[in-house]
Design brief:
6-stranded mixed sheet, alpha/beta, 5-stranded parallel sheet
Length: 423
């Protein structure tokens, strides 16, 4: 429903238009009727109408002055003027005040309704364009911060784009936080990726509202939708690591409490270490992701700093177990690769590789081959599957490639291995 305010000092005209025109059939609701410009302005501030249908000549404040106030206060209310035969000079001034239309005061109801309906249509068109621009700007801002987190932006590009987007940093100390959701399965339907996006959108909105109240001139924080999750990017005016921890914890607590209160879901927030300059942001984010995965190490509020886990073998082993569990469940997928596994546990491929080398003395691809070959040996001995069926079951649709790899791994062809181990 569009909201309409009628202003005319002639009660007969004012009430006649209010009562006799079928406004609601056109999706329009009359929210007030004023007898002069002063009363109309008071009603405009209260009801915020979409359309003002106003006489030009009124006591205390005429229609032109009223339209001037609407324009001066930046309201997008569309003005349709009612004018007499001798008021065309005033009507010309109305054009300068961006009045949408002016019609003769004694036109029949159908013409009045048509003019107001057209004003509604124009307002809808303009609001849609503004919303499109707003969303476009929001997407560009999110991409700007996403590039900072991913390390894609160089200093020259950051300086250029920050000016274009009117983004200013309050200092040179940066740190990142990652939000991890728990128990959200009830919100998501199978194969409905849009459900997850809607949930992330809701979390982003809650975070944005919280940050509007929590940040100050010396501590900025930005919500960033990146890596299939909602993240926070902190920027402090002072290069003080202790101050960073205090501010980051304060903001994270407010965010966490708001999400749990309004969305009724549990989250854990991992916070990376602070560092100088935008080049530190990707490292801090990597740390934040790792910290966010550490169940049982967060404080009672569900917040954990990377510094608490960086020297913990237990935390590394927990991540590595999630990786190896994923491989054990998906080794049959021929497209299984390092990038897919890393995205699943929300850490970078390079960090997965580092963990494998540190704890297994083997790289990722070699580990996948080992899992597949072990499974292939099991199938060859304990089933009657043909060699090509075994190959497909362990993620190798190319039988020749599988046979060559199997022989390299065991020293035997698949059939030789079956014959030797079934005796």
């Amino acid at each position: 429903m569009y909201k309409l305010l009628i202003a005319d000092d002639d009660e007969w005209i004012r009430e006649g238009m209010r009562r006799s025109i079928p406004w609601e059939e056109e999706g329009i609701r009359v929210v007030g009727a004023a007898k002069d410009g002063q009363e109309a302005w008071e009603l405009i501030q209260q009801a915020k109408p979409d359309i003002l249908l106003s006489d030009i000549r009124m006591p205390f404040m005429d229609g032109l002055q009223l339209a001037g106030l609407v324009k001066a206060h930046g309201l997008d209310t569309k003005v349709v003027f009612l004018t007499g035969y001798d008021d065309f000079t005033y009507a010309k001034q109305a054009i300068g005040l961006q009045a949408f239309e002016y019609i003769l005061k004694y036109e029949d109801n159908a013409k009045v309704l048509k003019a107001v309906r057209q004003a509604c249509d124009k307002l809808e068109e303009e609001r849609a364009a503004v919303e499109k621009d707003r969303k476009g700007h929001g997407l560009m801002v999110n991409k700007f911060y996403s590039d900072l987190i991913s390390g894609a932006g160089n200093e020259a590009a950051v300086e250029r784009d920050s000016k274009l987007l009117d983004i200013a940093f309050c200092g040179s100390l940066f740190g990142a936080a990652a939000i991890r959701m728990d128990g959200v399965e009830r919100f998501l339907k199978p194969n409905k990726s849009e459900d997850l996006e809607l949930l992330l959108f809701s979390i982003k909105n809650v975070c944005t509202e919280v940050l509007a109240l929590q940040v100050n001139s010396e501590c900025q924080a930005q919500v960033v939708h990146y890596n299939h999750r909602i993240n926070l990017l902190f920027n402090l005016g002072l290069a003080d690591a202790d101050r960073f921890r205090v501010e980051a914890k304060r903001i994270a607590q407010a965010v966490l409490q708001a999400i749990e209160q309004f969305l009724k879901i549990k989250v854990q927030i991992g916070i990376g270490s602070p560092g100088e300059g935008i080049k530190h942001i990707p490292f801090s984010y990597e740390e934040a992701l790792i910290a966010s995965q550490m169940k049982g190490m967060a404080n009672e509020q569900g917040i954990i700093f990377y510094e608490q886990v960086k020297h913990s073998n237990n935390s590394h082993q927990a991540i590595l177990k999630r990786v190896t569990d994923y491989i054990a469940e998906h080794f049959h997928n021929e497209n299984l690769d390092l990038k897919e596994v890393a995205e699943t546990v929300h850490i970078t491929p390079s960090y997965v590789s580092t963990l494998f080398k540190k704890y297994n003395d083997i790289n990722f691809s070699e580990y996948v081959i080992r899992v597949r070959m072990d499974k292939a040996m099991e199938l060859l001995v304990h089933t009657d599957l043909k060699a090509y069926e075994v190959a497909e079951n362990v993620g190798y649709p190319n039988t020749q490639y599988f046979s060559a790899l199997f022989k390299k791994y065991t020293g035997l062809t698949p059939m030789e291995y079956r014959q030797q181990h079934r005796k």
